[in-house]
Write a structure and sequence with these properties.
Radius of gyration: 29 Å
Number of helices: 22
Strand content: 5-15%
Structural class: alpha+beta
Shape: globular
Strand order of the largest sheet: 1-3-2
Length: 509
């Protein structure tokens, strides 16, 4: 038996025969998570079945279930409780998988609904559902995250203290490694790492050295460096930028190690703050004004290939700066590339990027950057807005990117020109598989027609490789479809739709 079957059998046997019996059974099953709602509440149930107010739902539940049900009426609930209590915490998807494999539920169910049932049976649960920030999950916040967490209330205070410490770590480190706290978080290491992975605006990377992470919506040394540097340059190669930032970090004392150059580079190339054109990075965040010594450094190095340290120091001394300030501004600055290949006594110094604005304001954003900034700003919208609302905002911006002020456009697959009403804003890579930076990149979409191409691309019957349409998976029992697909194979993709990361096009969607 499973929970839903036991519930329906109980209701069928115990609810009196009336014209509303079937409706009442569906109402009760819905409230306990077995009729399609992810977060069943009195209000939603009342609205779903058009039966008045939340108070009316409460009355129906009392009259038809709560007033006479006993825990022993549901043997499967005891098994669910046993599974739930086997851990101090669960990632929601892990608990769903566990109770599904134990045959306690069918395909569609809600953990929130089952917890409602436990509560109404008078079974002490001791667990609550929380967001990755460890706030209590609500209907609005539920869909914002890929995973929520079911945590034993008695453990929450301890877990919150671990997460708070982990959240503060990247501020100084730039990119933190959770291994720094492994001795403190102990058995909660996996939970804290999952909270970070599933958090809003986090970037994470696992490698042989541990679990690296950064919160992009919090103050951070690497972002601070970028706000300064990109006030005077427009772009920089990721390799050079990572090298400079690592050198700048080395000039700061801290009890934890700073991230290696390769991790800094990986972060910069996939950060929501950067436009990445095959490793050439443009910063799209807000920039900050340089202080006086930084301005003098930029002015002195501007246009010079490189300078020696004695010449560099002599110039800054002539401007009235003391040696401690000079040391920091020359050897530990995000503005300065230090070439150490000649040995310690022969270091040379140059700007991180020699192309500076030279007393001019940064150039105005192009169309791509304007749309990129609009999309990235969505990441800063508070959690009171549901995922559906965020997706609608995101989709409207992407539609404008492709179709604003246009009456016609070419389909990226068949190259035929259609009215924009016959085209859709199609993701090159499934949206659900995209990270924040990919979802908010205008280049993630292309126009595809509704005359068959959208279906063929979505089903992976056609794919894009090296700028051409290729055959994808086999179509079963589709002779006519195969004829159309054969006509598409070999089509060259317009260069406009090939912009962005090459990883957007995969052989399997």
């Amino acid at each position: 038996m499973n929970i839903e079957v036991e519930l329906i059998d109980f209701l069928e046997k115990n609810i009196k025969e009336t014209t509303n019996k079937s409706r009442n059974i569906n109402i009760i099953a819905y409230y306990y998570g077995f009729r399609g709602s992810d977060w069943p509440t009195y209000e939603e149930t009342a609205k779903r079945f058009d039966v008045g107010t939340r108070e009316r739902i409460r009355q129906l539940l009392n009259e038809n279930f709560r007033d006479f049900v006993e825990p022993n009426d549901f043997p499967s609930i005891k098994e669910f409780q046993k599974i739930l209590n086997s851990k101090n915490y669960w990632k929601a998807s892990d608990l769903e998988e566990e109770i599904s494999s134990s045959r306690l539920v069918r395909e569609r169910f809600s953990v929130k609904g089952i917890l409602n049932l436990l509560d109404d049976l008078g079974v002490v649960c001791g667990f609550e559902i929380y967001t990755p920030e460890l706030n209590r999950t609500s209907r609005n916040s539920l869909a914002l995250y890929e995973n929520n967490f079911i945590i034993k209330a008695s453990e929450l205070k301890k877990i919150k203290s671990f997460l708070k410490k982990a959240q503060g770590l990247p501020g100084r480190c730039g990119i933190a490694n959770l291994n720094y706290l492994k001795g403190e978080v102990n058995e909660y290491y996996d939970l804290v790492s999952q909270l970070i992975i599933n958090s809003y605006s986090s970037w994470t990377k696992k490698d042989e050295e541990g679990f690296w992470y950064i919160y992009e919506n919090r103050d951070n040394t690497i972002i601070n460096y970028s706000e300064k540097l990109f006030s005077i340059i427009s772009e920089c190669n990721a390799d050079r930028l990572a090298l400079v930032y690592r050198n700048a970090l080395d000039g700061r004392s801290y009890k934890y190690p700073y991230p290696p150059e390769k991790i800094i580079k990986e972060y910069l190339k996939s950060s929501v703050f950067f436009e990445n054109d095959e490793g050439n990075l443009k910063f799209i965040g807000e920039t900050k004004e340089l202080n006086d010594i930084e301005k003098d450094v930029a002015h002195y190095l501007g246009g010079k290939k490189s300078v020696s340290f004695p010449d560099f120091r002599s110039h800054l001394r002539s401007k009235g700066y003391g040696d401690p300030h000079i040391q920091k501004a020359t050897s530990s600055s995000p503005l300065v590339y230090v070439d150490k290949s000649g040995g310690r006594t022969h270091y040379t110094y140059s700007l991180t990027n020699s192309k500076v604005y030279q007393n001019q304001s940064p150039p105005a954003h192009g169309r791509y950057q304007e749309f990129l900034i609009k999309l990235r700003k969505l990441l800063a919208i508070g959690t009171d807005e549901t995922l559906e609302q965020k997706i609608r905002r995101e989709q409207r911006i992407l539609q404008d990117w492709l179709f604003k002020d246009k009456k016609q456009e070419k389909c990226a697959i068949c190259n035929k020109t259609y009215s924009v009403n016959t085209l859709v804003t199609a993701h090159k890579k499934k949206r659900s598989e995209c990270n924040d930076a990919e979802r908010t990149d205008p280049y993630i979409v292309m126009p595809i027609c509704l005359m068959g191409c959208d279906y063929f691309y979505e089903k992976n019957y056609v794919i894009i490789e090296h700028g051409f349409i290729r055959k994808g998976v086999e179509v079963e029992d589709g002779a006519e479809e195969l004829k159309i697909i054969q006509e598409l194979i070999g089509n060259k993709i317009d260069s406009r739709w090939l912009k962005g990361s090459s990883s957007y096009f995969k052989t399997s969607r």
